[in-house]
Amino acid sequence: MTFYDMPLYRPPSEGPNLILQATLGCSFNGCTFCSMYKTKTFRARPLDTLFAEIDDAAADWPDAHRVFLADGDALVLPTDHLLALLGRLRDRLPELQRVSCYATPTNLLRKSVDELARLKAAGLRLVYVGIESGDPAMLRKIRKGATQASMIRALERARDAGLKVSATVILGLGGATLWRQHIAGTAELVNRAPPTYLSTLQLRLDPDLEARFMAAFGEPFRWQDDAGVLEELEDLVARLDPPRPVIFRSNHASNALALAGNLPKDRDRLLAEIGAARAGARVLRPRFLRGL
Question: What CATH number did the domain enclosing 226 receive?
Answer without folding.
Answer: 3.20.20.70
